[in-house]
What we know:
By secondary structure, the protein is of the alpha+beta class. Helix content is 28%, strand content 21%.
Amino acid sequence: MAVSPPVCDFDAPWHDFSLRSTSDENVRLCDIRGENGTLVMFICNHCPYVRSIIDRIVRDSALMKDAGIGVVAISSNDVDTYPQDGPEHMLAFAEDHGFGFPYLYDDTQSVARAYGAECTPDFFGYNADGKLQYRGRFDASSRSAGPKDARPELLEAMLQIARTGKGPKDQTPSMGCSIKWKHA
């Protein structure tokens, strides 16, 4: 079932975290924070919405890093229900796609809850002051990749944030698979 998160809550603060990466290192927000902004994205291995754009995410993340934007991906899915989203599979997924950014596992799901993440992919674009400026989609892709010349909405927004500190006023929410929450 496709889920679409709410629109951007401009200037909402980011949330600190310390999570294990696929390279078995503890990564904190301060470790990935960019001089000109930071992108925190919630993804997972199995979601068709993520899989349809993962190579574009990797490509655009490299451009963001060149612009002084920190990038991190977090998987928060319940691996008891979705074992293919577990840390060992995350490592293979990151290597297969050439991730140039940390891929972290949120075992307790506390980081996803703090950010209000609802789906994969869910993008949170912050300015240099840690204030939310973008919570929109990557591009016009859905369960299948959009056209190769699809407008790179996330990249454009993050580059605008890097330049001006402000995100675009008009944003189209992301769409994807719901986060697979653990049962209480």
